[in-house]
Amino acid sequence: MKVLDAELKPEVFNVEVKKHVLWEVVKWQLASRRQGSHSTKTRGEVSYSGRKLLPQKGTGNARHGDRGANIFVGGGVAHGPKPRDYYYPLPKKVRRLGLKMALSLKAKENNLLLVDSLDLGEVPKTKRAVEVLKTLGIYPQKVLVVLPQKEEVIYKSFRNLPYVRVLPVEGLNVYDILWADKLLITSQALEKIYERLSS
Predict the structure, then answer these.
(1) pLDDT at site 23
(2) How far apart (Å, rounded) are the C-alpha atoms in residues 149 and 185?
(3) What is the pLDDT of residue 199?
(4) pLDDT confidence of 25, banded at 50, 70, 90?
(5) CATH entry, 10-34+86-198, from 3.40.1370.10, 2.40.10.10, 3.40.50.2020, 3.90.950.20
(6) Distance between CA 14 and CA 12 in Å, rounded?
(7) CB 114 within 8 Å of CB 136
(8) d(C-alpha 183, C-alpha 185), whole Å
(9) Tally of CB atoms within 10 A around 146
(10) Are 129 and 161 in contact (CB under 8 A)?
(11) Which of 65, 71, 79, 136 has its CA 20 to 30 A from that of 9?
(12) Omega of the bond leading into 140 within 30 degrees of 0 (cis)
């Protein structure tokens, strides 16, 4: 493993950063991740009889229908949440621009490390992964490791470290880039980033 000092393409790593675009993309990402499985019962769904509680007139009490009305404790909920999908579309142009801005931000802050490759042996070892981070001087900061494609050994080696995330280039996103203090990118992954963002 060797740290490289390569010239980065300005159209990907030197884009003017606009906070609003980054905010827009992160908001869209987090909305897409929401489960939306929350649910409450309406007065028609609670398990109560539909019998009228007391006569409409003559008792001196307020008029009431069934026990499941939303004004009673244990009754249904008025206008409560129901399962829904929080996804909304965001133009591909904006998503791609957001990714370029996030990468440019890390490059501008000198929080981007480029290595020729990551070799952690045949068997996943967390100890070996920690050694690599210490060698690069980025332990124990929050690190996002970017690989050309998913590699089981590397993924499993870093899996137990709460401050490290491993992503293939196709899964690279604004939220994770902004989460990390340092970006660790292999040279092959860099080529794939150019491929993904230049089209």
Answers:
(1) 98
(2) 12
(3) 61
(4) very high
(5) 3.40.1370.10
(6) 6
(7) no
(8) 6
(9) 26
(10) yes
(11) 136
(12) yes
